Amino acid sequence: AQTTPTEDIDVAVGQLAKGGAVNTCADEDSSPKDYPTDRTGGVFKLIFILQLAINIDSGCLPASLVLIENELDVSVAEQGALGGLVYIGLTLGSILAAPILRRYNQRTVIVVAILVNALMCVLFGLAPYTIFLELSRFGTGMSQAFLVVFAPIWVDEFAPADRQTLWMSLLQLSIPLGVMLGYVFGVVSGEVGGDVVDGWGGWRVPFVVQGFLIIPLILSFCKFPLSDIAVSLHDSDDPEYQGLTAERARALMGSQSSDLTVRNSRGTTASSEGTRHAPSLDVPDGEEHDSLSSLPNKPAGVRASVMGTVRQSRIASLAVPVNNKQRSMSVFGGLATARPSMFLSDLSSTAALVSKDSVERRSTCAVAMTLLSNGVYIWTVLSLTALYFVVTGIQFWVTKYLVSSLGHDPGTVGVAFVVVSATAPTAGVVFGGWITDKRGGYQGLVQAYKTLSLNTVLVVIAVVCCSVAANISDLFPIMVFIFALLFCGGCVVPSCTGIIMDTVPSDLRTFASALSQIIFNTAGYALSPFLSGLVAQAADPTGKDVRAGFQLVLYWSLWGLVTISLALFCAYRRTRV
After folding, report:
1. pTM for this prediction
2. What sign for the dihedral angle of Cα 475, 480, 485, 490?
3. Which of 12, 125, 330, 464 has an alpha carbon within 20 to 30 A of 134's alpha carbon?
């Protein structure tokens, strides 16, 4: 007897709840339902705007350092702390975000976290003392982590199959756009309202406006039903989650005329070639799963692998096809702070990661040692860390260096740096992806060696540009050399990111991704403003000249050359084995 579409769905949902495999077809005559719904598109637009809004402060701060120092008497070392604390908070917040999002109502968690972020922005704008500035920056990073971790997972799960890479790229693009917008606001507020009136300077305005802008945006998040927001990584007993499985299943079954194939927790599948696959359900032994995993199914090969970052990479954010694999790359020229755009578990608990069957229940220490003994992996990670150290330091100190140390006009500096940061990394990422493809990609031992050879040449060029920029004082030549080094840095990011994942066993890639992000955040993004601020303070206790700190940032590129050379040497040895 022929079953109706409704009966097919009920059977599918029943089998899915038990962690089983399903292969059933929707009736071709059944009335299709659009999935994703129009509401899903609305959620994405709101997430895009939110990510843009919460990154405005990242651009405002570097543009306002001189004014903050003059008004609150903030030392150079303390200014460096303001730049580094947000990354420390973001890293710790990313570790906490995954278990909290799994355990509690995800919509409520995101709303509360972003409201706290808005409060931190207002606190920074109204801060009467340095300690409040520092608390605000740490709190900003902590609160942003929840949306930073959640957003790429939501896009991966809900985006239409034919627009998933586009949505992921747009999501990453929102970050550099927010930073660049913030930098412009910071420059304008300093030029228009730079004078201190009754103890309050114009630099405060963008931070306060940002906070009040975020509040209505995040409150509008509440109007969407949980079924359009929650990703299937929770173990909450919230009643609102009940019915989520059936609702998504019906929407999906109504929109597909092809087989619906769902793999159970052991990865078994009943599919034929060309079938659209849903990711496997992560069902603990002996337990029933109460929700579908990633029901908005994507064709194999379309799902974007997002590296990149923990407060994220900036101005160029596009998906670069490297050897037929789409990887969403984001690099902000000079603002290359990357957000942890990876799976929720990547930074949540490394102990939990390595307790899975995929790594044969080896200890965290054993898995870490396996990765650290992989020369190509660890030296490539460290070379990217050096790159992020340099570009983060440039972004943070370039305005203060050119204005306070070299005496250039703040408005001219602001315009010049916006132009450079908006063009150099974008062009570099595009060129780097294209040239890697033309040379055969990065996969495999031989191709990894060829790619690292080219990257080493690009790093040599970047080192030369850094060395020259550190010893000249004219604005135009400095910007030309900064453009060149940011271009070269953008070129190496796509292929080096791919090599990091390709060079490790597939069952260790999730852990390798998490470990690399932790190294990037602590030894790259956070360390750069901290260390350079301390060096500048030691060289000039008055804090007026940050030349020593800025030069440290530029000369740090030499460490990048050492590490990329060692990665090349390790790759060469592996090709000879």
Report:
1. 0.70
2. positive
3. 330
